[in-house]
Design a protein that fits this description.
With about 425 residues, the protein is α/β, with parallel strands linked by helices. The chain has two domains: about 5-260, 4-Layer Sandwich (Metallo-beta-lactamase, Chain A), CATH 3.60.15.30; about 330-415, Alkyl sulfatase, dimerisation domain (Serine Threonine Protein Phosphatase 5, Tetratricopeptide repeat). The protein is built from 16 helices and 13 strands. The strands form two sheets. Strands 1-2-3-4-5-6-7 form a seven-stranded mixed β-sheet, with no helix packed on it. A six-stranded mixed β-sheet has the order 8-9-10-11-12-13. Helix 12 crosses helix 14 (about 360-375), helix 14 (about 360-375) runs antiparallel to helix 15 and helix 15 runs antiparallel to helix 16 (about 400-415). It is globular. The N and C termini lie far apart (about 60 Å).
Length: about 425
Amino acid sequence: MTDLLEYADRAWRGEADAGFFRTGRLRKEGLHEIAEGVWMWPAFGNVYLFPTSAGLFCYDTGEKRTARDLLAATRVRTDAPLHTAVYSHGHLDHVSGVDPFDAEAAERGWRRPTVIAHENTPRRFRRYAATAGYNVAINERQFQVPVRWPGQYRYPDLTYRDSTTVRVGELDVLLRHDRGETDDATIAWLPGRRILCCGDFFIWASPNAGNPQKVQRYAAEWARALRWMAGLGAGLLLPGHGMPIAGADRVRTALTDTAEFLQTLHDQTVEAMNAGATLDEVIHSVTAPAELLAKPYLRPSYDEPEFVARNVWRLYGGWYDGNPANLKPARRENLSREIAALSGGADRLAARARELLAAGEHRLAAHFAQFATDADPSSSDAHGARADVFSALEKAATSTMAKGVYASAAAESRMVRNGDMPQKRDTP
């Protein structure tokens, strides 16, 4: 079985690819014992199990598609029932693995596992149910796979507001709430063992504090939570995604580096806003420190600093971007037709998109490709240019966020060009 701590050590030193963890191969090895009495299920969303005299304590429960595998892997290790599970937050890859344990408890006559979460988690589940169609669309775009959005959720049995303590057998756990990627995040601190379960406050990548298709993130509060965690003196950090980190110095460094990363993006954005900058000026001027971006655990492989700046703007500045023409804009198609009329038609816009792409002007090329298809949705040439441009942008992008949006746009244009889907119709 792979030694996760040894692999994490090599990844920390830049000698192993942290991306290997995300292939899912390690999950197939079952539960990994990363310390005495600490089992890790290295799934898309990590699961951590702690055996106690009263049963298992679980921090996060994984996703639905691997829920039965989690139970099976657990039963290879122990027959002890699941006593208590804590959700780090309400995202589906962290809250969807309890059902098989519930069913097992019913079959064996055990008490049902107690699930604990922050008081905002039930509200999140209700929002997910109300916006199921939208969540299918954005997650299919982001991850480029078919998505089945659930209509039912395993609600917590107990909720708390600011902090609470839990005792399972001989295991004492402090649960603390803070806002970061979500407004319902729970940190678990096991002081007697100096183990810190941080959920998605740390994910071995640039923090998911900007996500362009999803609800508000909280960069400054996230940084504050990370600094609080860094002061605990934890010897083992168990993140929501990616490998565990062992050693107090490394844990402190990982947390404080991530806090600095977020804080500098937040502070630069606020400073620019206070100086009267527009959103356009903010996103093209705010940058993350190069020395932090070079860290193997802060590379923009999922989110990007530019998106974090946008989310800070959204938190403090609303949706107006500083361009008065965007306050009550013309329909996109009408604007594109006017631009096409001035420039010589949609085909000319498509040609210019290709020229800009060849010159390495990817952002400009994207605008012109989109203008071309908006101006003439039936133009095969325009959709060919759009497919070429966004395919190139997808290959050049580093983050899952950007890759998903660009790949979706390219696929859409390829389908239109090939006659595989109806043209978009204007609405009156």
